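[09:14] KT: can someone run the structure on this one? pasting the chain below
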Amino acid sequence: MRALRAAVALSLFTVLSAVSVSACKPKAGSKCTGTQGACLDGDTALLCVDGEIKEVECRGTTGCMKPGLPIGTGDVTCAHDKAEAGEACEKEDEPTCSTDKKQMLVCKDHKWSVQMECSGVHGCVNNAKGVTCTGGIDKEGADCEEADTYSCTPDKTKMLVCKDKKMVVASLCKGQHGCRLQGKKVDCDNTLSDVGDVCMSGSIACSMDKKAFLECKDGKYAKKQDCKQQCTVFRDEIQCR
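[09:31] RB: done, structure tokens below
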């Protein structure tokens, strides 16, 4: 009789334990609160995102880690060294890099969204210092983060600068070399320009017809003097003869 009772008790304990563990494991699509979650596998987590359990990709060296007990339940950590736009994310405004390192992403409305293009030499970098995005090629009006950083337009005719979180025209680049990226520096060949062109303080240029010497005043080129013979550009040096 005692053996039978022990067997029944053990069987009941096994069933209750199984139910308890099963109840602790979240399922994708189910409702949730707080920090419920588990590791689906080493690279995917099941996390409580906006009140619902969702599969979240853990793209990083540590992947999905599960310190809770029983194994696979409790709080988990999900690495976001990189991500793909449109994937689910749990921490609003958290930044990361795209998998190809060409974009900086940020978690908005629980999805990774493109914050800005990172077309510079180093692209997007995510390390212990944080997420950095180096430009190089941007469209006028594109979003940006770091003030006073420069880039070129795709057609290389303009140099842009980040002002008030937007890329705006800093200078037109009508010279032979246009706008180009040299190492970490953006170079704008504005040695040939028209009166009224947008420019940077201190810049000088020859007029497009090479008959006048121009200088930048209040952000636009103005005629400084006419050239009796010709305004010439040689190795980025300008002479008015």
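[09:33] KT: thanks! The radius of gyration is 30 Å.
[09:34] RB: yep, looked fine to me
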